[in-house]
From TrEMBL:
<dbReference type="Pfam" id="PF02567">
    <property type="entry name" value="PhzC-PhzF"/>
</dbReference>
<dbReference type="InterPro" id="IPR003719">
    <property type="entry name" value="Phenazine_PhzF-like"/>
</dbReference>
<protein>
    <submittedName>
        <fullName>PhzF family phenazine biosynthesis protein</fullName>
    </submittedName>
</protein>
Length: 213
């Protein structure tokens, strides 16, 4: 039986909600890509991480149906779990830090998978959206308070893998931050919270609360 940790990443201010993440600390226990894909499918989380080098932070990320070169909530959750200054993903080296229940990463917008960022006129419109049919990956968002950078968002992966709506997606928040060029506090899904900020070197910082599930 392969052992794995389950975390909730991007929890809300009260510690609830957050997106579940599976982390296999001993990646060698599931060595082949097809085995990892099958394992991620069985777990059924939006993403599962396999740690291939716990000292250097080399990780491999899978959804139930595909392998990702980079993803936000898996990197934030694994950064919190391992407590390393960086993670190594196929997309590049992700700087990381941890402070109590919080963890942050710094990554480039071009590392994130393509997303359609679709703005709506109000948070109520975003709340009322039905789940769209499979197709494009949609990040629906609206300003809650533009002056202070508060955003309401929901994420629809558009895949036929049982994940109709993603509770909290760091990569999409990263892309939105890069587009708007300002720090954001995003409330996504039921009540998950993502905080972001553009960095002067072209990176975007993404962070949130992490707790064991």
């Amino acid at each position: 039986m392969t052992e794995y940790d389950v975390l909730r990443v991007f929890c809300g201010p009260d510690g609830d909600d957050g997106n579940e993440l599976g982390v296999v600390r001993d990646g060698a226990a599931v060595p082949a890509e097809d085995e990892r894909q099958a394992f991620a499918r069985r777990l059924g989380f939006s993403e599962t991480v396999f740690v291939d080098d716990p000292e250097r932070g080399v990780i491999d990320i899978y959804t139930p149906t595909l392998r990702l070169p980079f993803a936000g909530h898996p990197c934030v959750g694994t950064a919190w779990l391992l407590g390393l200054p960086a993670l190594i993903t196929p997309a590049g080296r992700v700087r990381a830090r941890r402070d109590g229940e919080w963890a942050w990463i710094e990554a480039r917008a071009e590392w994130a998978p393509p997303r359609t960022l679709r703005q709506y006129g109000s948070a109520a419109e975003v709340d009322a959206l039905p789940v769209p049919p499979p197709g494009e990956w949609i990040y629906a968002w609206a300003w809650q308070d533009e002056a202070v950078g508060r955003v309401r968002a929901r994420a629809f992966p558009g895949r036929d893998d049982g994940i109709d709506e993603d509770e909290a997606t760091g990569a999409a928040a990263l892309l939105l931050t890069a587009r708007l060029g300002r720090a954001l506090t995003v409330t996504q899904g039921r009540g998950s919270q993502i905080v972001t900020a553009p960095r002067p070197d072209g990176l975007v910082e993404v962070g949130g609360r992490v707790r064991p599930a």
